[in-house]
Amino acid sequence: MSAAAVPQTGRRTPEIVLVGLGIAAAVVTMGGFTLVMNQVDQATFEAVVMPALLGGDTALDPLAAREAGDTLAAWFGVSLVLLLLLSAAGIALARSRPWRRTPAWWFLAAGLVCLLGSQLVLYPVAFLFLLAAALVALRPLPEGSPR
């Protein structure tokens, strides 16, 4: 029997796809906000970004609002880097040893970083990581299965 005829039952494709979607969404949202805040000047911030962040509440000083936006952007940037590192470790383990449950911990950590790093705003994105962690933990694969 050739290698192509052997069924590939021991793969973590659904989990890796979920994590990939979560990574893409986190890069677009968290990374996009960080990029915008790092590129915008004060006048554009006051005219465009500040009303979007604060809604109708313009009682906050523009310089204080800019400082809060920059702080949030830094928080998002650090959280995104940590999320990417945790996800990469989980994906590497899920691909090299798909029968083990270890990637679930990495995906769980990435989901918690996404959730807490976005200050609970990106809970739909964090749900993708948590769902991948649950699938790794609950979906059994035969030990030593082919990649």
Characterise this structure.
The chain is mainly alpha-helical. The protein has one domain (14-138). 73% of the residues lie in helices and 0% in strands. The chain has five helices and no strands. The radius of gyration is 20 Å and the shape is elongated.
Outline type: elongated
| Proportion in helices | over 70%
Over all CA atoms, what is the radius of gyration?
A: 20 Å
Which spans have pLDDT < 50 for at least 5 consecutive residues?
1-8
* Helix and strand pattern: HHHHH
Task: Give a brief outline of the structure.
This protein is mostly helical. The protein is 73% helix and 0% strand.
Q: What keywords describe this structure?
A:
elongated; mainly alpha; disordered N terminus; 147 residues
List the helices and strands and how they pair.
Layout: H1 13-39, H2 42-54, H3 62-96, H4 102-117, H5 123-138
Helix pairs in contact: 1-3, 1-5, 2-3, 3-4, 4-5
